[in-house]
Amino acid sequence: MVARSYNIFSIILKYAVDMLTWEQEELPAGLEPPERGDTYYCMLFNDEVHTYEQVIYTLQKAVNCSQKEAVSFATAVDRDRNTSRQSKPLRVQVMHSSVVAHQCFALKALSWLGQIIQYSDGLRRILCQVGLQERPEGENSSLVDRLMLNDSKMWKGARNMYHQLLMNSLLMDLKYKKIFAIQFAK
Predict the structure, then answer these.
(1) Which of 48, 46, 39 lies closest to 59 in space, CA to CA?
(2) How many angstroms separate the CA atoms of 70 and 67, rounded?
(3) Residue 178's CB: how many other CB atoms inside 10 A?
């Protein structure tokens, strides 16, 4: 049962990390839909650098919409207050609908993992082992490392979901909390 849980958690967590950190337009082999449509999403990322007013202004200019519509869009993008006054371009990325669909499914998979590990300390520890295991690529190659290194490139829902999973797994066990702290400090 332990080996099977380890394998299942490895597959699910690797898939989720791969999809949430995916930067190419084409999906990996085997994940492309049978018929690739011509549907794209324009993703406006919450970068935690811009003020709410900057986002509204940029949306009004970019989408040619009213201030009320821009406020509605901005509310969907930015649910926390931003206090920084820095001036960098907003991060916008055009993504194919199949990539967005896989990312949404990856979030559901992370949510499921979060629910499953609540049933048993043993399952939580297995997930910790899977997340912190170094890959053949070398230093900073664990799945947790990849998530942390790509944190600022992810959309807010993805960041929140994996942060919650880290808090409910790695940070709940003294042994894995220490390992995570050492890796985080590198």
Answers:
(1) 46
(2) 5
(3) 11
What are the tens digits of pLDDT across the range 29-84? 888 888 877 777 766 666 666 677 877 887 787 778 888 888 887 777 655 333 33
Q: 52-63 and 67-77 are packed helices; what angle lies between their axes, rounded to 10 degrees?
A: 120
Whose tokens are 């050492």? That residue is: 182
Cα–Cα dist 68/132, whole Å: 45
Measure Cα distances from 159 to 14, 15, 46, 103, 164 in Å.
16, 16, 10, 12, 8
The backbone torsions φ and ψ at residue 150, rounded to the nearest 5 degrees and listed phi first, read -105, 10
Asked whether the CA dihedral 73, 75, 80, 82 is positive or negative, the reply is positive
Label residue 86 by pLDDT band (50, 70, 90). Answer: very low
